[in-house]
Structures are given as C-alpha cells and as structure tokens.
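4.2 Preliminary Data

To establish feasibility before requesting continued support, the project team ran the inverse folding procedure on a target of 248 residues. The structure was first converted into the token representation described in Section 3, and no sequence information of any kind was made available to the design step. The complete token record follows.
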C-alpha cells in the first residue's frame, strides 16, 4: 500500500467515511449487528472471553512492558465489536483504532504514525497519545490517549501486518470472508458510502495479497457468532519480540 509498506493503493474517492469515532470511547459497545443473511451475532461466551483475557495477561511482554494484541480481519468482520468486548474482559484495556491513523490518501500508510506515536512510547514504559484522523474534515483533528497497561489492543484492517508483527504478543483474526464482510459493511453504512466501499475493497484486497495476516494468527474468532476457536498457526514461538517496526 502507500508509503512503500505494501503495494500502491487507490486514493479513497470523494465520499467520506462514516463520521469519525469520538475521541472518548466507551469500554464496550452494546450493539450487536446482524450477520450477513443470518441471525444476530451473539457475544462470545463470557467464560471463553475470560479465558482468553487470562491467557493474554500471562503472555510475555512484547512492546516494552506491554503485551500488544492485534485484532485483524476484513472490513466489516466485527473487529471493533470484538476488541471492545475483549478490552472489557481485560478490565478496560486501552484500544488503538487504526481507522484513527489511516487517511483517505493512505488507507494503509499508518505504520509510521503507529510506531512513532504509540509503539515507541509504550516500549519506553510511557503513556502514549496519537492524532486522530477526522474522516469528515479529511484531516487530523484531536487526539486519543493510550495509557500504559499490561495489555493494549490494536484493532483494524492490517493490524497484524508484517511491519507490526514483531511487536505483537498475539494476533487475533476475525473469521469472515471478504465478500460477506463487505456485504455487512455496506448494509451497515448504507448506499451513501457505496463509492467508498468500491475503493476500499480494492485497497484491502491488494494489502492482504501482499501482506496476509491470517496465517500468523494465534487466535481465530468467528465473525458471525463471536465464538473463539483456540489454536495457533504461523509465527514460530522463538521469534524475537521487539517494538521496532520493520519497514519493507
């Protein structure tokens, strides 16, 4: 995508993304959106979430004193909802939303901002704060705080990308194929954002073709039911854990 991080991506069209999330966010989102062509998604069972939260807390730190956990998947796969529930199960863990760091011109060009504004301060044992992109104003406006915590979540498409994986204690992947996720997203956002979704689908497809995340996930979550499927695939456990961001 942009900034030499993956293959070149199309610039997002004139249609704005949904109104930017407020800087102050609740710990969990109460809404449960319907799955594509199916029943409403039920939250992951509390005992499963609690078990996953305990497992994450027990992992070795991966970014200074922090266990950095990525929640990745296709747009519309349920990443934000699951990350909010997992954050609540972790007692209010901070969540970094990659939509806040991406822009219309560089939908995947956020690696440098993530590194400089979030990863480096956390690696040094400090609270972090990052600039938030306003998708309506088409510029960065406001900031979001990331307090130092035992576990910090990063959620968004590409959260488990090659440049970020060395900093991760765990990569969570939302299991919902691109077509189903896109249908869900389009139903959620309405016809006014149809043009955005066309451009986004091209950018996302190019990103995952060049830099797939799923093969490296340690935890898989069903994007429709929210069910956690334990299992580990991908990265060898001997991989050095560091907060340095590797740029291709």
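Position-by-position output of the design step:
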């Amino acid at each position: 995508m942009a900034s030499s991080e993956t293959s070149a991506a199309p610039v997002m069209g004139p249609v704005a993304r949904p109104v930017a999330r407020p800087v102050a966010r609740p710990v969990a989102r109460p809404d449960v959106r319907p799955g594509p062509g199916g029943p409403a998604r039920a939250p992951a069972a509390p005992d499963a979430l609690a078990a996953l939260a305990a497992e994450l807390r027990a992992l070795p730190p991966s970014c200074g004193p922090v266990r950095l956990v990525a929640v990745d998947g296709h747009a519309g796969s349920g990443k934000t909802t699951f990350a909010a529930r997992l954050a609540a199960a972790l007692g209010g863990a901070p969540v970094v939303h990659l939509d806040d760091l991406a822009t219309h011109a560089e939908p995947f060009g956020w690696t440098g901002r993530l590194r400089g504004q979030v990863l480096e301060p956390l690696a040094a044992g400090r609270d972090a704060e990052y600039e938030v992109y306003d998708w309506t104003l088409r510029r960065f406006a406001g900031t979001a705080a990331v307090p130092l915590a035992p576990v910090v979540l990063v959620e968004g498409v590409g959260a488990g990308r090659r440049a970020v994986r060395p900093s991760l204690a765990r990569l969570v992947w939302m299991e919902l194929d691109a077509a189903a996720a896109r249908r869900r997203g389009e139903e959620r956002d309405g016809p006014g954002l149809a043009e955005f979704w066309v451009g986004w689908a091209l950018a996302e497809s190019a990103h995952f073709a060049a830099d797939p995340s799923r093969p490296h996930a340690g935890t898989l979550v069903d994007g429709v039911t929210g069910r956690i499927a334990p299992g580990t695939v991908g990265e060898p456990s001997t991989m050095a854990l560091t907060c340095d961001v590797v740029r291709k």
